[in-house]
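Whiteboard transcription, Tuesday session. T.W. wrote the structure tokens on the left side:
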């Protein structure tokens, strides 16, 4: 897909998105599972843009997309006209017409939702098959496992009336392969799936692809891993990096020992330091929790491969970094520093901001110059 590249000077930072790496990650996960892989493109494709990501994945052969809201489903439908598009957050009252109009599939997770959808279908509306969500641990959305099993054993009734075409559940702890909850969920879902063998099933999320003894069933639902996130925390990341984030230096200055820097003077120079202010802040999605103060560590950037810790509070539009260890000939006005990329992967950036890589991804700002490559 052609890149949308405004004048670099109009943006404070540049976000590079590698659609080729995204597609490679999708293919790797499908190959690992030995079955068809879908793609979770909710939250604007984890911040990377539903339209370009879904277009690239559909072109590569992805036939199943998962979103959180109807509005996201409408966007995915426009660029993937032949795919199944499932709306994970359930059927809100009175929204059946929107699902039919845009050929979206609701993920039904309660008796009320099943009955409303079945009633709507009985009116003669043309709809896509729905999915049935059974809760096997999260206690968030979905039918209780026992309820799901009872419905499955009926072999008819509301499941048939609702035209359910996919059975699914969601892992609560799959990123921790040692958590015994994984085995319990696998067993609970297997019992329900066995009661309706004619229904395709889906259990694997990103980390689920790397769990031992986890059945692949007919469809998997990777999300975070598609976008380069590590589905195996604490181990080498098997996924290709998909994004890079760079910002320009606006100004460089020297400060003396004892100088307080940033809002409320929360960082104090320990010796003479050279500081650079970059064109990015929490309004661009970098969490304020990435602030580096006298009391706590925070985020960092890379300049010429050298780690440059943040200095003081992350501001709305600006961050100050310590470039003392970078040659003065490099740390100049207009130089680009890396906020995400290389050793500063999503996990490292999340840790520096006292959060997780998921939040970093889904918070990516709209002011960036977005450059799509590959795909």
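and on the right, the sequence the group agreed on:
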């Amino acid at each position: 897909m052609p890149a949308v590249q405004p004048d670099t000077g109009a943006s404070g930072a540049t976000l590079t998105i590698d659609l080729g790496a995204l597609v490679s990650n999708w293919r790797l996960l499908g190959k690992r599972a030995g079955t068809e892989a879908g793609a979770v493109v909710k939250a604007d494709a984890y911040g990377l843009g539903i339209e370009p990501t879904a277009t690239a994945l559909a072109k590569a052969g992805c036939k199943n997309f998962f979103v959180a809201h109807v509005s996201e489903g409408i966007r995915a439908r426009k660029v993937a006209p032949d795919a199944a598009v499932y709306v994970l957050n359930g059927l809100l009252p009175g929204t059946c017409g929107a699902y039919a109009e845009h050929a979206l599939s609701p993920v039904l997770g309660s008796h009320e939702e099943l009955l409303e959808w079945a009633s709507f279908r009985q009116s003669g509306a043309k709809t896509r098959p729905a999915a049935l969500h059974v809760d096997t641990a999260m206690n968030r959305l979905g039918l209780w496992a026992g309820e799901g099993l009872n419905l499955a054993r009926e072999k008819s009734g509301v499941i048939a009336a609702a035209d359910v075409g996919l059975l699914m559940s969601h892992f609560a702890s799959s990123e921790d392969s040692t958590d015994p909850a994984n085995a319990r969920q696998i067993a609970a879902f297997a019992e329900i799936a066995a009661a309706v063998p004619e229904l395709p099933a889906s259990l694997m999320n990103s980390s689920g692809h790397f769990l031992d003894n986890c059945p692949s069933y007919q469809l998997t639902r990777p999300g975070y891993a598609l976008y380069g996130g590590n589905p195996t925390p604490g181990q080498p990341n098997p996924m290709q990096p998909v994004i890079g984030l760079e910002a320009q230096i606006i100004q460089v200055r020297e400060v003396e020992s004892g100088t307080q820097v940033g809002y409320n003077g929360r960082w104090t120079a320990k010796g003479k330091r050279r500081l650079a202010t970059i064109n990015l802040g929490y309004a661009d999605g970098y969490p304020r929790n990435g602030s580096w103060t006298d009391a706590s560590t925070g985020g960092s950037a890379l300049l010429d491969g050298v780690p440059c810790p943040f200095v003081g509070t992350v501001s709305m539009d600006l961050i100050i970094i310590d470039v003392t260890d970078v040659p003065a000939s490099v740390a100049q006005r207009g130089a680009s520093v890396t906020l995400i990329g290389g050793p500063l992967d999503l996990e490292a950036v999340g840790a520096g901001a006292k959060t997780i890589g998921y939040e970093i991804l889904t918070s990516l700002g709209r002011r960036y110059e977005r450059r799509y490559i590959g795909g």
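Someone added at the bottom: The first helix runs from residue 19 to 33.
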